[in-house]
Design a protein that fits this description.
Blueprint: H1 2-40, H2 42-60, E1 71-72, H3 78-81, E2 83-84, H4 88-94, H5 99-116, H6 119-130, H7 134-145, H8 152-163, H9 168-175, H10 190-214, H11 219-227, H12 232-256, H13 264-270, H14 276-279, H15 282-292, H16 296-324
Antiparallel strand pairs: 1-2
Helix pairs in contact: 4-16, 6-10, 7-10, 10-12, 12-16, 15-16
Amino acid sequence: MNTTNIKQTRAKQTRTEFESGLLKTKLKTKLKILYDDLKRNKLIYLMLIPALVYIIVFRYVPMYGVQIAFKDYSFSRGIWGSEWIGLRNFRDFFTSIYCWRVIRNTILINLISLFFAFPIPIILALLLNEVKCMAFKRTVQTITYMPYFVSLVVTVGIIYDFFSNNGIVNSMLSYLGIEPIQFLQKPQWFRPLYIGSGIWQEAGWNSILYLAALTNIDPTLYEASDLDGANRWKQTLHVTLPGIMPVIVIMLILRMGNMMNVGIEKIILMYNPLTLETGEVISTYVYKRGIQEMSYGFSAAVGLINSTINLILLTASNWMSSKLSENKLW
């Protein structure tokens, strides 16, 4: 028995030493590969440094302040001096009369935008891809790209000029004998105006990514499908769309990760007391409580809830995409 135990112990030691040596060899190999890569692409990594510094300074360092979500924070006492109140800020939000309204409005705006705004750049890129006249194609691209460079203030000003009581749209309705509509005072019109103006402003710019993806599709696939008798519609369904599907899936995952975010600047410029019922979202509610009412702990708690939900949605959509297809972020 003793001899057997000694042999087993020696075998275990030998196996442990072998595994340890194997791990060291693998580690050395990986370090060597990393060193060679750094040496070969040192200029590219130098270009990456500003982006890393930006992310660390403006994304990771502020995480230190997340703790004020659990405190009755005040400037005079500072973060460490403020009283620890646990989950009271979270309870105050979920018991607030505005809680479910702002959550509902945020989700509805994002879902409607996802349904209508997300496919339009894809459709636009597919249509432009079919245009053979380069002059017409470039003209359309220029016209659709230009609204992206218009500031939000000017965009909202255009909305007011077009949809006010004396605006162009109501003037046309009156000319046709239709009763003018108070677009800017009716809550039910806030979401269509917000999402529609967003589509007008961003559709052309967002189509650039899909146009770039279309250029990477192998032309021989179109030639082969043409020989098989496929028309342009079938080529789009069976060649073009599968070719850009990885890009579509990645963009959809990223979009899902922002489902609880709505642009605060445009909302604040557009809404008014008459449209708060459909226009108030989480970001504007945080702005009001945090900046205007100086309830920083409460606004930090709401922001933390918002970010946590976004992280869950991003992770879940990436996991689902990895299960249903080979496309994923990580």
